[in-house]
Design a protein that fits this description.
There is one protein chain. The strands form 2 sheets. Strands 1, 3, 6, 8 and 9 form a 5-stranded antiparallel sheet that branches. Strands 2-7-4-5 form a 4-stranded antiparallel sheet. The longest helix is centred in the first third of the chain and has 4 residues. The radius of gyration is 17 Å and the shape is globular. The protein is an all-beta fold and about 200 residues long. The protein has 1 helix and 9 strands, in the order βαββββββββ.
Length: about 200
């Protein structure tokens, strides 16, 4: 994670979404306000991890986080699940916020829009509202994956109805962060001294 926009044409990062082997994150069904350590989640092969440099000064976050992602999948549908975490010097990865989106509903739940395989789309993921202070010396970490079972049923990635799809398939998902498609995380930050 960096405050500056991408200066080069960086290659996308990819992971495999495997619906018949969904990873069950710690606390997947629990209240999002509970403090959870995400180290087990970030070690999964199907989770991308982005980490900031240590903060030079405290950062007070208050409100709703929005993750603007440029993503693609080689399938008609896929899920994106993300977590924002506070990482102190001892290495814990403490969840601050979580968000998720089934990509066929990227334009709203009143209409389904299948993905064109391997064609990037821009999506907005509205994460949980939070009030949290990230201390100086801590890092921010963003995790991006495709499953939070059993909170969200595994996506068969075929574009068929979730409850009756007769088959499932593995999908390769890609996250873009280059000059033309600068994925970004919008943080609601209180001004210095405001509490």
């Amino acid at each position: 994670l960096d405050r500056e926009a991408p200066a080069t044409d960086e290659p996308p990062d990819s992971f495999l979404s495997t619906p018949d082997l969904p990873f069950v994150p710690v606390g997947a069904t629990l209240d999002p306000a509970l403090v959870l350590d995400l180290r087990e989640t970030e070690r999964q092969e199907d989770v991308l991890v982005y980490t900031s440099a240590p903060l030079e000064a405290p950062l007070v976050l208050h409100g709703q986080f929005i993750l603007e992602l440029h993503v693609a999948a080689d399938a008609p549908d896929a899920d994106v699940v993300c977590w924002l975490a506070d990482v102190p010097p001892d290495g814990r990865t403490t969840r601050i916020s979580r968000g998720l989106l089934r990509l066929r509903y990227r334009d709203g739940f009143d209409r389904e829009r299948p993905l064109v395989p391997d064609e990037p789309v821009s999506v907005c993921i509205h994460m949980d509202h939070v009030g949290h202070e990230v201390a100086a010396g801590h890092r921010l970490r963003l995790l991006v994956g495709s499953t939070v079972f059993p909170l969200l049923d595994p996506n068969p990635n075929t574009g068929e109805p979730i409850a009756t799809a007769p088959t499932v398939r593995t999908a390769r998902e890609s996250v873009f962060h280059d000059r033309a498609r600068p994925s970004r995380l919008l943080l609601p930050v209180l001004p210095k001294g405001a509490r």
